[in-house]
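DM from R.C. (forwarded with permission)

"hey, sorry to bug you on a friday — could you get me a structure for this? deadline for the figure draft is monday and I only need the backbone to look sensible"
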Amino acid sequence: MTLVVVPEFLVTPDNCAAFLAAARADAEASVASEDGCLQFDVVVDDTVDPIRVLFYEVYRDEAAFKTHLETPHLAAFRDALTLCDEQPVRRFLRVVP
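My reply, with the result:
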């Protein structure tokens, strides 16, 4: 089964543009350069303050996710974590594609 990882971040409106730029770069690089990254969506609930940002990441398996954790683009994204309040990461097994 494929692995779904759902990180969540709370971002103040004044930091949102910079945070989303970093998130977009990580998402695009993940899909483009990682064979095991099947999907990487960034979604926003901007009806609340702070803004809630979720990533919906789908990996072929646990090994593919572990590879993702070692990529240069994720290392670069980690710099953006100073712009937000990172929430606990949720993990799921996808049973229906």
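R.C.: lifesaver. The first strand starts at residue 2 and ends at 6.
me: no worries. The radius of gyration is 13 Å.
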